[in-house]
Amino acid sequence: MMHPTSVRLATAKPIPQHEDSSWHPPRRKARTAIAEFGGAVSHLYARRLTLFRRLKTMDLLHTRTARGSVSSELFNWARRFQRALVLSDCAIVVMAISVALFAQYALTPSQLQATEVFLQSSAVAGVLGAVWLGMLAIFRTRAVRNLGLGFAEYRGVVSSSLYTFGILAIAFLVLQVETARGFFTVALPVGLGALLLDRWLWRRWLNHRRATGHYLSRAIVVGDPADVAYVVRQMDKKSGAVYNVIGVGLPQGTSARITFAADTVPVIADLSNIGAAVRATKADAVIVAGEPRSPSHFIRDLGWELEGLGAELVVASALTNIAGPRIHFRPVEGLPLMHVELPNYDGGKHTLKRVLDITLASLALVALIPVFIAVTIAIRREGPGPVLFRQERVGRNGETFHMLKFRSMVTTAETDLLDLLDRNEGSGVLFKLKNDPRITRVGRFLRRYSLDEVPQFWNVLIGDMSLVGPRPPLQTEVMRYENHVRRRLYIKPGLTGMWQVNGRSDLSWEESVRLDLYYVENWSLTGDLIILWRTFRVLVAPVGAY
Fold first, then answer.
1. pTM over 0.85
2. Of 341-345, 479-483, 489-493, which range is least confident?
3. Rounded to an integer, what distance in angstroms lies between the CA atom of residue 292 and that of residue 277?
4. Residue of 281, 215, 283 lying closest to 58 (CA atoms)
5. Tell me, what DSSP letter sits at residue 439?
């Protein structure tokens, strides 16, 4: 007679042992967990879409109001927009971690190892997601002041992501968590790329709304008339500005006619009753322009007066041509000292700039070979004459060089210029004529999309020019420069620059000089990359090119 235990063992159904069997409880549980993870991502995106629609339906609440009127929901839009960003960030972080988790699980061949990897990786995923989202908040990547403009938002996203993975890399190395490696190779690039793309898309949407008068903060600009007029004019010039100027405050006994968005801005206060004007208009910001002719403690007293009113205090520094990274505050015994770094025109930073020039110019010359061939054929077919146009320009420290361009004018353009000087539409020392009769049919197309300047990559490669810099001037222009304008020659001229992405030929002489001088003293590699990106956008939708 068999023992009862032996009978049960003999009659029990055998456990499938084949790898292709469908009976895999651990793997099935893991797949169920991943499916639930994916469902959470879908739910977060659905909530984001709902918030996006709610933001879109708020047009009537956030339209640009009449001067002095109050928008009751103005304080809520920023909170709702930040909530949408939180949901976006959560969805993207969960998505990136899910991709990394699935990659680790799917690439593990053994059933038993896959289960162990999944359980350990799930714990790592939870820690990574919490720390990543926490870092995005700690770095204030959703701060209202950074939304829609500047590079601070993107820099915060990159810094918070790198800090997250850097800190956790050290922690996991100490704890010997082997499964964490996959998250660094998958989650970091996928998540960071998706976060930056998401912020860019949200910024495009927000700036589009602001350009049409929505989601703007009502501001009162105070100071001396000339300073107030300058600040308002600069804010009106940029469609991406975040303020709607509803009034100005001037010293008692002074007046000025100031316009913003084609409307005259009323004088609603003097410097002694700014707080009352904020209460009456429910303004969101007070912008102090320059240094008003008032007691030295004016800004301190104004800050006290604005406490509890919900308005922010913004100071437009008189250091208008000095970039933020060159300004440092060092308090000494309660005295806030502002240190301004002097510009440096050589050194290691310039060496890195040269390396960037050589690398990108070499790649561009190779990639644009088809463009060279096509433009050469087009110019040859249009008529006789050389394909390339060589012109002497002035470079760094006044040294001359021959700048290359595709010929876009008739061969007698230089001699024909004398007959066109009385039709000059340019300002300052520049000659500009929108409908210049010397420009050929092919040349007009080349100029519109800046294809005539493609050969200048060779000038960049051999060191005569840089990718980004001031506009390369003619010798006749330099001879008419004022002393301060000669500072444009302290660095190499550029294939593109701030003048290229801010209107080109539509700029006045004074504005082009201001932009070039600002670049000469404040350039950075990060700024160069941003200008190169903006140049690409300008080439797609040309402005001021003729």
1. no
2. 341-345
3. 17
4. 215
5. B
Tokens of 109: 């061949």
- Which residue in this structure is represented by tokens 């499964």? 179
Confidence of residue 25 (pLDDT cuts 50, 70, 90): very low
Measured CA distances, 128 to 9, 254, 324, 501 (Å):
46, 59, 33, 40
Q: How far is CA 174 from the centre of its chain?
A: 37
Residues 486 and 387 sit within 8 Å (Cβ to Cβ): no
Q: Determine phi and psi for 64, rounding to 5 degrees.
A: -65, 120
Q: Coil, helix or strand for 339? A: strand
Centroid of chain to Cα 300: 32
Mean pLDDT of 104-133: 73
96 and 182 in contact (C-beta within 8 Å)? no
**Does residue 424 contact residue 431 with C-beta atoms inside 8 Å?**
yes
Which amino acid is located at 113 in the chain? Q
d(CA 79, CA 57): 15
Q: What share of the chain is helix, strand, coil (3-state, %, to 5)?
A: 55, 15, 30
Angle between helices 25-56 and 111-138 (to 10 degrees): 30
d(CA 356, CA 54): 45
Phi, psi of 210 (to 5 degrees): -65, -35
Cα of first residue to Cα of last residue in the chain, in angstroms, is 105
- pLDDT greater at residue 438 or residue 339: 438
Pairing of strands 388-394, 400-406: antiparallel
- At 217 the three-state DSSP class reads strand
Distances (CA, A) of 436 to 431, 432, 502: 11, 8, 22
Element (H, E) at 95: helix 74-106
Which residue from 168, 165, 211 is spatially nearest to 186, judged by alpha carbons? 165
Phi, psi of 273 (to 5 degrees): -135, 40
DSSP secondary structure string, 366-392? HHTHHHHHHHHHHHHHH-SS-SEEEEE
What are 263's strand-pairing partners? 260
Euclidean distance between CA atoms 271 and 457, whole angstroms = 54
Distance (Å, whole) CA 495 – CA 459: 9
Cα Rg, the chain, nearest whole Å:
31
Dmax (CA) for the chain in angstroms is: 124
- Is there a contact between 306 and 286 (Cβ–Cβ < 8 Å)? yes
Query: In Å, what is the CA distance from 345 to each residue of 355, 395, 492, 519, 523?
Result: 16, 14, 10, 12, 10
Task: Enter the DSSP assignment of 183.
Answer: I
